Amino acid sequence: MGDDTEPDDTNEPAPRRPYPSPYGAQFARSFGDLTGFGQFRQDILDAMQPNLPDLSQLFAANHKHLLEQLQPTVGQQLQSMLSDAALRAWQSPPDRSRPRSTRTPRKFLTANATEVTTLAQFTKAVAQLSAKHSDHELVWRGQGNADWAVRSTLSRAVSPNGATEDELIEAETDIVNDALGWGLHPMDFPAAPLHVLAELQHAGAPTRLLDVTQVPEIAAWFAVENPAHDEHDALLIAWGQHPRGKKGVAKNEQSTSELLNLDGGHQLPWREWNVEERRDRGWGTGERAHVWFPPHPSLRMRVQHGGFMIESGPIFTEPVVEVINAELTRTTDEDHDWRRSELERATSVIGLPSPINRVTKATDTPLVPIFTIVIASEVKEVIRAHLATRGLKSKTMYPDLPGLVTNVRRNYPTG
C-alpha cells in the first residue's frame, strides 16, 4: 500500500542550510562562521561531504561521539583547503604557456594512429595507408620507441624542448665551417654545404636532417631492427609532402631542390632568410614537407631508397594551433586543446595527425598530413623476422664499413 497523503503544493521548499543538517549549529560553533566566503564556502562543504561519516547512525548512537569524529576530518580538510598555497592557486589563472606533463609527444603523434599487434595487421595497415594516401607523395620514417619526439639530432643537441630556426642556423654554421676547414680531401668530402650535412648525418654528427625513405617496409625495418628497444612500442610515420586543398592535394609547383637551389648551391640558402621569406617558402609552417633526395646518393642511401626531411624551426602560429585542435577533435571525437609549447615539444615538423582509413580534408590553414602506425612491442621480433625474409637486415641496409663497425659493436659491446 502507498501513502495516500497528497503533497502540499502551496508550501515553499525549505531554504538550503549553510551547514549539513542535523548538526549545523554545532559545526558552526566548532569551526567558525564561514558565511563571508560565499560560494567558496559552499565549494569547501561540497568537497568535504564525501569524507563525513553516516550521520543517521552516528547521531542515533551518540551525539558526543559525532563531534569527536567530525573534528579531525573537517579540521584537516579546512587546513588544507584554506592554506595560503591553496587560496593562491584558486585565485590565479592556469599558466597556459607551460607544457603539461600529460601532453606527451606520443599522445600528439598517435592521436589518430592505427596500432598493430600482429604481422597480418601490420601488412594490412601499411598497404591501406600506401594506397589511400599516395596522392600526398608519402615519405616514411621508423622510430624504435613510440615515445620519442620527432626532432633532428641537432635540435636535440641545441635545446631539450625544441630549437628555434636561429639557434639551428648558428649551430650548423659552426659545424659546417669546422667540417670545411678540417683538411679532408675533396675526393672524400663534398664542398657544397648541404652535401656536407648529408655526409655528417650518416657519420653520426648532429644535423638538422631527418632520414626518410620512399619505401614503407624499409622504414618499418628501422623501427624494429634494434632488439635493445624490443620492450618499447615502435612508431612508423608517414608524412605527406603536400597538403590537401579545396580542389584536391595541392602539389607544390617546385620541388624542394628547385625551391632552395640545393643541388648546385654553395651555401645554405635559409641562412639569409628573414621571417617573412621563411613563411613565403613554407619554411617551418607545415604547408609543405621539405624533402631532399640527393642527385648522387651514397651506396647506403641507394639501398635504403633514402632522402632527408630538412627540419626547420617550427612556426606554430595561433591559426595553426587552432586548426590542429579543431581537426583532432573532429577526427577523434575527443576534445583537444594542445598548447603551442606542447606541440613544439612533440615535433619539429609541423603537420596534422590524420587517420589512415579516411581521405584527408582541406583545412583553413593548409597542413601536411602525418600518418602513424604504432607497432606493439610484442610483435616487433615477428616483423623483424618477416622483413629479413624480404632481404632487409643489417648487412643489406648498412652495406659499408661504418655499418659493419656498428654491427660489430652491437654484438660485442665494450660497456
Explain what this protein looks like in three dimensions.
This protein is α+β, with helices and mostly antiparallel strands and 415 residues long. The protein has two domains: 24-91, no CATH class; 105-411, no CATH class. The protein is 43% helix and 10% strand. The protein has 19 helices and ten strands. It has helices at 24-31, 39-48, 55-61, 63-81, 84-91, 105-109, 119-132, 153-158, 165-180, 193-203, 216-224, 256-260, 275-280, 299-304, 318-332, 340-346, 380-389, 394-397, 401-411; strands spanning 114-116, 138-143, 209-213, 234-240, 244-245, 248-249, 291-292, 306-310, 352-353, 369-375. Strands 1, 2, 4, 9 and 10 form a five-stranded mixed β-sheet that branches. The protein has a three-stranded antiparallel β-sheet with strand order 3-8-7. The longest helix is centred in the first third of the chain and has 19 residues, at 63-81. It starts with 23 loop residues before the first helix and ends with a helix. 31% of the residues are buried.
What's the count of strands?
Answer: 10
Main β-sheet: number of strands, strand sense, barrel status?
Answer: 5 strands, mixed
Order of helices and strands: HHHHHHEHEHHHEHEEEHHEHEHHEEHHH
Give unreliable regions as ranges: 1-37
Which of globular, elongated, flat, extended, rod-shaped describes the shape? globular
- Spatial gap, N to C terminus: 83 Å
Assembly annotation: single chain
Task: Report mean pLDDT, rounded to a whole number.
Answer: 83
As for the number of domains, it is: 2
From the alpha-carbon coordinates, what is the Rg to the nearest angstrom?
30 Å
Number of helices: 19
Helix content: 40-55%
Q: Report strand %.
A: 5-15%
Q: What structural category arises from helix and sheet content?
A: alpha+beta
